[in-house]
Amino acid sequence: MLPAYKPSSIETQKQRVGTPISLHAYNPHITTRQLPHEASPQSTLDIRTKEFSSSLSQSRFQPRQLSPSLNKRKIIDLTLSDDDEIVPIPRKKSRSSSQSTDLSAEPNHDSRKNDKVGVKQLVPTLKSTNLNGTVSAPRRLHFASKSTKVREKAPVFRSPYSQATSSQERVSAVQVPPLQPSPADCRRVFLENLSVLKGVTVINTVDDSSPPLGFKFIKENVIGKGVHRATDEFMSGCTCRKDNGRQIGCEYLVCECLEDSATTKDGKKMFPYSARKIDSGCLRPFYLQGGFHVFECNEKCNCMSNCKNRVVQHGRTVPLEIFKTTNRGWGLRCKVDLKTGQFIDTYRGEVITHEEAERRGNKRHPDDRENYFFNLDRWEDESEGYVCDGTFMGGPTRFINHSCDPNCQQMTVSYNHADINIYDLAFFATEPIPAGTELTFDYSASVDEEIDDADEDVEQSRVITEKKADELEKKKGYRPSRCLCGADNCRGYFFT
Ligand SMILES: C[S@@+](CC[C@H](N)C(=O)[O-])C[C@H]1O[C@@H](n2cnc3c(N)ncnc32)[C@H](O)[C@@H]1O
């Protein structure tokens, strides 16, 4: 059944945006507060696809740390004599952690030489799994490189006698480490995946890890099973004059697209975007401060595509950079200065039903605290709206971290007014942001229920102490995440 268009007045607008769903809603088993990227700063990979792991085991990729003789000899004799002393093979030093890695740059000559075996075999396999949208496994699997935990757990042991050259003296290996792509392989695959987006780069000046490979970059939302879209016939547009020869556009007319938008105290409809030269296209403070839903003009409108009421639908125009933070995994920043109210980018993902979100939530690993679900419940109760899941498919905004003193805000924006439940989640700057500053928003802005549940003191101050987090964990079975935003007004914890 097609969804009926529901006219709504400002009174019916929920004063919240589609901020992240608390993961505990879908996974009541979460009890730990591990931050996966921080848990093992050395761990280089974060790969979530089963296909990837199984295709890796099929490939004959041999980790480089194995000796050439082990590479050649598929059968390893494990005989040890009583005199044999078992010692671990000394591990090669990993690259200096202070070394900067520009992930867009080609690897240097040496590393290319080293990666030869892995790259040739891995890239085609990854293309046919990760990059074709068949990413399916929500569990994060850790494939460690030579300097990581798994390697430590599964070392290759060698008898000191095996150093001798005689073939009678045996090479002894008790365990072969799991197969693993190198950081350079991951970088290459990640960049290939990222190349579908224009104007987004990635850089790591902290260590030599690459961003997770277990998701696909997409430009538009992917509509999931059971999600209904309004067809074209339900779409309507404004009748504003096409001829804006005298620079008269929707911003100066009573544009019908604003019919359901917020009104000022004296009942006026406010145009969402500034038409002034100085901050043209920036969201006006009325919307930004009020968190009101934005109704843009659309293709059914009589106005032109350069109408001042079309901003988010044109997509990202500023260059963004995914970068490694020192303590919160990956983050996002803009390479140019941003003005207050400037549109940055939309949150992209799969639009799924609540049943599907619940199913996915239940399948998650209990330790997995990363949450990429956003409720699309601006107009409906949580049970009726949809969910935007950026776990397996998404855009660069999935890397925006939480801050208790954020510089961005997420707004809800529609241009197909008939599709009231499917709208964009758009990020705007709430203050002038100098180029290179990390972009952040407040994850807890819409999870007041959880904060309320925590305690009355928390409700007032919104600060969660360690003790309160413990209480909340006991009472509710989930624990908020420890916040590392570093803001003076940091609340201590945030909800994911
Ligand atoms: C939507 S992801 C943001 C991108 C993430 N940093 C990454 O590398 O993919 C949310 C996760 O980032 C981390 N994170 C974000 N903000 C944080 C903060 N203020 N303090 C600690 N961890 C944070 C947490 O692990 C959280 O679950």
Description:
The chain has 496 residues and is of the alpha/beta class. The two termini are 33 Å apart. The strands form seven sheets. Strands 2-4-8-9 form a four-stranded mixed beta sheet, with no helix packed on it. It has a four-stranded mixed beta sheet with strand order 6-11-13-12. It folds into two domains: 1-40 and 214-496, SET domain (Beta-clip-like), CATH 2.170.270; 47-197, no CATH class. The protein is globular and about 75 Å long. It has helices spanning 36-39, 50-58, 68-72, 109-129, 149-153, 183-194, 285-290, 354-363, 448-454, 456-461, 466-476, and strands at residues 87-88, 101-102, 157-158, 200-204, 216-217, 222-223, 294-295, 320-324, 330-334, 343-347, 350-352, 373-376, 386-389, 393-394, 401-402, 408-414, 424-429, 440-441, 481-482, 493-494. A hairpin with a 5-residue loop joins strand 8 (320-324) and strand 9 (330-334). The model is unreliable at 1-100 and 105-169 (pLDDT under 50). S-adenosylmethionine is lined by residues 35, 37, 328-331, 369-372, 398-399, 401-403, 481, 483-485, 496. Residues 87-119 are annotated as: Disordered.
